[in-house]
Structures are given as structure tokens and as C-alpha cells.
Design brief:
Helix content: 40-55%
Number of helices: 4
CATH topology: Nuclear Transport Factor 2, Chain: A
Strand order of the largest sheet: 2-1-6-5-4-3
Shape: globular
CATH architecture: Roll
Strand content: 35-45%
CATH class: Alpha Beta
Number of domains: 1
Structural class: alpha+beta
Order of helices and strands: HHEEHHEEEE
Length: 149
């Protein structure tokens, strides 16, 4: 009888801990989604500087795209401003999340698609973002974005 009582207590403890972990994971995913959709809003407001706030402000930030790998936050910002010099070029951005995966307490990946509606012609593609929790905040540390052909 004592064995059954201890077993039931262990199972109950496991279920409570598992549920707490799932809730924490859901909360982290919601935080990242909120940041991504804030980026979308910042872009649509024509504010590349605000859009970049979610990226890791480090020379170790990696951005991969059609022209290769860019290292560093400032270079990534400069490239965005060169490629999208005005609101007309920036258009209206829409993100569509396809998948989010928790790799650890402090690392998540997010895959999705992006679309820009513009008078000069619509473009879009796919992205893979690696997010890391740094000093309590979620930051994009790796961004690989490609355009659809």
C-alpha cells in the first residue's frame, strides 16, 4: 500500500512539473511571437531602426541571405537601409509563422514566410530565425532569409 501511495505521489509530481514546463514553453513562444509581430508593425511604419531592436546587438549576429552571410548588427542594419531606402520600397510586410521549436530554456527556432506588398512589385520568401534569451530578453542571433523564385 505504501508503494502505491509513493508511486501516485511521484506521478502527480511529474504531471505538475510537466504541466508547468509546458506552460513556461507556451509563454516563451508567445513572447517571441509578440516580438515578431512588433517587428512587422515597425516595418510597416517605415521604421527599420525599431525593426532591428529585436536583433542581438553584437558583432556575432549572423544574417544569411541571397548575397551571403553578414556578420554584425550594424552591418545588418546598414544592409537593410541600403536595400529598403524608403517606405515605398519597404511596402507592407506580413509574416506567417510555420513552426516554433524549443531547443532549450534559452534557445528557440522559428520558421515562417514573409510577403511584401509593394506598388513596384510584390516579393516574399521564407526565413529561419534562431532566438536566444540574453540577459532576460529574447533576441534573434541568426536570421536566414531567402526569396521565393
Amino acid at each position: 500500500m505504501e508503494f502505491l501511495r509513493i508511486s501516485a505521489l511521484l506521478i502527480l509530481t511529474f504531471l505538475i512539473v510537466s504541466n508547468g514546463s509546458a506552460q513556461q514553453s507556451d509563454k516563451q513562444m508567445e513572447q517571441i511571437k509578440k516580438l515578431l509581430y512588433q517587428q512587422q508593425q515597425d516595418w510597416n511604419n517605415g521604421d527599420i531602426d525599431a525593426f532591428m531592436e529585436v536583433y542581438w546587438k553584437s558583432e556575432d549576429l549572423q544574417f544569411g541571405g541571397a548575397t551571403g552571410i553578414t556578420k554584425g548588427w550594424q552591418q545588418t542594419l546598414d544592409n537593410y537601409k541600403k536595400r529598403y531606402p524608403d517606405k515605398a520600397t519597404m511596402g507592407t510586410l506580413t509574416f506567417n509563422i510555420k513552426d516554433m521549436t524549443k531547443h532549450s530554456r534559452k534557445v528557440m527556432s522559428l520558421t515562417g514566410s514573409w510577403d511584401l506588398k509593394r506598388e513596384m512589385g510584390d516579393i516574399g520568401g521564407h526565413f529561419l530565425l534562431i532566438w536566444r534569451k540574453i540577459k532576460g530578453d529574447w533576441r534573434i542571433v541568426v536570421d536566414h532569409t531567402s526569396a521565393r523564385s
